[in-house]
Amino acid sequence: MAVFGISGHSDVYDDLRSVGCCKRCCLRYMGERTPEAYQDVDEWVTKKGLEDISSDDPKSKQMKCNPCVVCMGLLQGINTEDTVKKIVTYVNAKGYDSKNFSCAVSIPIAFQLRAYSLWFYLVDKFPLLFPNVDEQQENVITTIKVWKWTLCPLIAKEIGKDFDSGATCDFSVAIGVHYPDDEEECSCLLQMHEEIFNERKNHKRKYHGSLFTRKSVESILNSTDKDHFKKYFSTPPPIPTSFISYNDVSCSHNSIYFAGCYNKFSRSLSQTPWVIEGERRMESSVQEIICGSIEKACLADGSKFVSSGREDVDVRMLGRGRPFACEVLNPRKVKFSPEEIQILEAKINCCTEDVAIRHLQIIPKEDLHHLKAGEEAKRKRYSALCMSYDKVSLESLENLESIHEVVLCQKTPIRVLHRRPLAVRNRTVYSMKATPLDDIHGFENKSLFKLDIVVQAGTYIKEFVHGDFGRTKPNLGLLLGGVNIDILALDVEEIMLDWPPPTQIAVK
Fold it and tell me: Which terminus of the chain faces fewer neighbouring Cβ atoms within 10 Å, N or C?
């Protein structure tokens, strides 16, 4: 409840000014909740009859010389133009095209000590107006909120963006505030709560090496008895040794997400960068070809690639392609028209003949679940060029088409045991069809055939074909009467996942 309107409020204002509070901090502790009050504080205190700024008031002169005892100059309006200019210059230089922004202000921990000190002082000095010692957080407007009410409209005007006070804004400007004696002032906490801080000292790893954190100090002070607090920190708080300074400004934008489907036409291209013991095994990858162009278009810091499964280096991805998503990290450009996205898609497709994408689009983060939803339940269709070292009859090949819903028992393949744990997985082969091929030069004494197969996602096709030394049962050789089969080439023909939705605009 605001103190305004209650008898004695002028006394509270005068007293706060006498102990070294700036005008805005006076209003904060008197419960003023009108943003306009802080934006033109001189006019407001005059209008309320709290102060006559036209008079030669010694209190005002004193406050121009000393930092406020609570905000240490953050809300005093000193060098406001320089502060706004510094922030605006930085933000404009970074070139973010977001239409709105939010601000995150990081203040020294000493602010918390001083806030409690002044509150305890008021509780003792004006017990009728401040009867409940535990109501500081409910009644006092925070320093950061008032800072945003005061400076953010000025920043918004200069950078041409709308200020968004909500937590859902994607673009944030972070501002660091520095107080040189912060650590020294907070050292009183070591005596005030010796047991707690000795624990933090002795278990640095547990507390990540941080003796004082805003969260821990706030929690401790919130449960600190007023009289106990006053033994270790003066009330009201002393005049600060110096004004605060702005030591850091940074910008960040939440990730945006592109999705689409890709085809891979090469048998010597990995899906993701292939690096072993720090050495690249291949010059590029599907991820780098796609995400590199997207990163550049978004002026981003980096990206993360995720797809609906993956194919081996020597396996082509054909048909409608494999669904993928690219998380773009800290993008400067986030506004794309449908035509611009289609131009970006065409640009990626011109990079190489090995990869092509389609249906490129920006999606909300929530849609990423489609990539992993029903991961083991979805089906995939493959075609494999197979070779039998023994003659296989046409009848045996034709019989494969009548076999349905075969459950395989597959141990982790030998070829991936170095990076995956040994396990046994059951996977289903839903249908198969074998087509004999004419004799090919060099394979005259062997049976060649094309195998079309639909399987459960996660099935090791190569191991189903050649058996992996009996680690996959049944395997194709057993189903064909116990012959030795090998696989010469493998293609993914279809990922049975209708996502993302097709795009409609085509680039001419």
Answer: C
